[in-house]
């Protein structure tokens, strides 16, 4: 009968007409990312011909793509020695830049491969939603060449401007050679595209937040496979963001110690503040949004039990199921909104804020 306490969530879970082809279309979009996402294509371009890429081939591909600017440097030693790298200081800085680029490429490949695991659970979650097609359209728009190129070129401009302003400082020991611009530009290109896709992944929960007819597991919505896989994916995204921020900051510190001046001092002070804001958006906002999506579903399940009646409904009393209604309310009202502990998110936030406060305090004393 319609007033059974467990009937409402079951009906909500099975409502609508499931689109069986949606998972296949979603998989095709993610598969096309291997060709259309700049940083993913670059990371595997030298190993993409293999039917099944092993770890050795993947590692060689990533290593060669990350270190190709050194080939340019070797050529410059022959054709234009004055434009090649000079001394250990420049090699130390370019080594730090190359290591950061290596990490970005490795994270891009592994993250996109992991994202393919989301296809089936995400297709199950969104298969009944009338707005399910909007997600595929949004992903295709994000893969457009123009938007990615704009973000990558923005990274190139920022990185090359940092090298230029550093070389113009009176106390600078660094000459703005072609080799330095190649290394900085390549790192900025990868960094701009990596940031573009980190923000894209962070925007995914905001997109599906307003979708109706989501297909949750009725017994525990937070443990719906899509929610579990999304939380694991965002743990990887948060780790990639943290590594990228630390690598970029260390590169700036190395450059600043070798070339003290106003330009790099402003970068070292401002970058952690901007980076902390991005880290909170990429590493915390998705969890908060996913929790709100689950909580909204739980509220919909509990809605029939929260009507403003002064007494139980006649049907509840007649069939002696008021106690079952109370049990159902107690069960659903205490369910978690995320499949992970809130303490994990708070530790991430506390780590970012504590590092930022300590850094700014040290800067104020120096």
TrEMBL record:
Query: Is the keyword Transmembrane in the record?
Result: yes
According to UniProt, the name of this protein is Uncharacterized protein
**Source organism, top-level taxon:** Bacteria
Keywords, A to Z? Membrane, Transmembrane, Transmembrane helix
Q: Membrane spanning segments where?
A: 56-79, 91-109, 145-166, 178-199, 233-256, 262-284, 345-365
Source organism (scientific name): Nonomuraea monospora
